[in-house]
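Handout, tutorial session.
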Amino acid sequence: MDEYVLIMRHEDGAKVASAEQMQEWMKQTMDWIGGIAAQNKFVSGTGLPFDNARVVSSKKVVTNGPFGDIKETIGGFITVRAASVEEAVEFAKGCPVLQGEGNTMEVRRIAKNDGVH
């Protein structure tokens, strides 16, 4: 069984939800993760807040960021065990982040020194 990372992408990082909406989304997200964990398929995960973030360019220039005005921001990720990419995609389809217009989930297999790129 392979491991896959499910990356939560937010279309508009400039939109700020109310505290009540954030609490509701967090509850929905915890319930979603709980459903995956109940199948013994959850490995790990975390949210990625914007405070104290930095971006390092290829020229080694460091700037504050990421910025909410960019097209897309990464809000967090979880790692799951799945028998196939299709099973991992099914987990991703249940993520509450998809309630936001334009939001997406990226599903990527984690390399395990198996020579597959």
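The second record follows below. Compare its token runs with those of the first.
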Amino acid sequence: MAWQLDSDRPIYAQLVERIQMQIVSGYYEPGGRLPSVRELAATAAVNPNTMQKAFAELERSGLIVTQRTNGRTVTEDTELIGSIRQQLAQAHMEEFFSKMKELGYTQPQIMEQMQQWLQK
């Protein structure tokens, strides 16, 4: 099944975000082997060159490592993975609170909404 990608943003950036999310959530474990560019491109229904660009960006960030004989693997640096996980969480929280404020909610009202949601 093809990945849901948004036409409003660069595809490679969305691929980077998706793979980052899979790494920080544990879908791909530290030190674990990643599928090949062609395999992931087929899964995501994107051009292999676009997936290669996403992999290059992930490698620059240190999340993935290319090993000559073993293909690409997830970094074993769990501190880096945790740091990127925290950065992603922070970005999601900032977006959430920004949207809630646009809806006219105050901070106490946002907290109340969160409490109600968590109790479900």
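Points raised in discussion: The longest helix spans residues 78-102.
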